[in-house]
Amino acid sequence: MSSNVRPESMARITTPELANAFIEEQVAEVRAQVGDKKVLLALSGGVDSSVVAALLIKAIGKQLVCVHVNHGLMRKGESEQVIEVFGKALDANLIYIDATDRFLDLLKDVSDPETKRKIIGNEFIKVFDEESAKLEGISFLAQGTIYPDILESDGVKAHHNVGGLPEDMEMELVEPVKLLFKDEVRVVGEALGLPHAMVYRQPFPGPGLGVRCLGAITRDRLHALREADAILREEFDNCGLAEKVWQYFIAVPDFKSVGVRDGKRYEGWPAIIRAVNTTDAMTATIEEIPYSVLHHITDRITHEVEGINRVLLDLTPKPIGTIEWE
Ligand code: XMP
Questions:
Q1: What pTM value is reported for the model?
Q2: C-beta 206 within 6 A of ligand 1
Q3: Contact 121 CB / ligand 1 (< 6 Å)
Q4: Which residues contact residue 133 at a Cβ distance below 8 angstroms, ignoring those fewer than 6 apart?
Q5: What is the homologous superfamily of the domain 16-199 according to CATH?
Q6: Domain locations in the chain as residue ranges
Q7: Would you say the CB of residue 277 lies under 6 angstroms from ligand 1?
Q8: Alpha helices (H) in the chain, listed in sequence order
Q9: 318 lines ligand 1 (CB under 6 A)
Q10: Which of 94, 96, 109, 112 is deepest in the core (most CB within 10 A)?
């Protein structure tokens, strides 16, 4: 199991029983690898790092140090959930860093999407580096590498790895789920008792809402985006679309249009709904959302979210549109 090649013969983990057997095996392996040393993990709250955290907490408890960096571009409630699940319920050794101001100050007036990505990626490494330098006696670095990451490590997805860590960090790696596919990681996560919503979280880009708050990010527009996105997610949960649609979110562009509210002129940004289905994210089709649901979401967003005065629906498949707007 130690090579980077997944043996053809390896059985897929599809049931809680198989997941439990995998967990037992990994717990023993991790204990043997780590001994009484300490392990560091960047815990983003995504599926892979969350499952690795839960697995390592089971194996080595407080020898695991989790660092969660909130870059201020998380969806509503996500950092809070990390604190709730790992800091409280699992009683992990969790260091929470709210670096919102650092990121948003650096991103001020930056509108080019690739520059925004670079700033977010570099700053993430810097913050993580600074925090890990304060810790003593860390011998291992845990990572939520999964099998497709190994298959794709030809550079194509390099930009996806915000949370990728400094290369000069010389620590031995602990990668307990590196031979698993995503669906297997999820089965293992559920067997470890992680909340369903965390384990079945839809894909979320490392730079987070930074790629959906189009153009130069401002705090007020970012806030509007986060609130509108939370409403979309809530309504998709309510009508069963959350279980069905692969990825859905709101993007908010940096221009306003004229509207009217309470009899007065009301300039606001549009909120763009994107809801797509795909198997590999290379191509994507559009989910057909019932008009009644769209009307209800529009009504809620335009009434509840300060600064939004229109709701639009993106009907563009990939190609020609990418999934994210950037
Ligand atoms: P695009 O926009 O290229 O996105 O069609 C394809 C899928 O990749 C996700 N995405 C990311 N995932 N880190 C990630 O982990 C990233 O930086 C990143 N950027 C895009 C996107 O959400 C979609 O699911």
A1: 0.92
A2: yes
A3: no
A4: none
A5: HUPs (3.40.50.620)
A6: 16-199, 212-313
A7: no
A8: 16-34, 47-60, 78-82, 100-107, 113-134, 147-151, 182-191, 196-199, 219-238, 241-244, 291-304
A9: yes
A10: 94
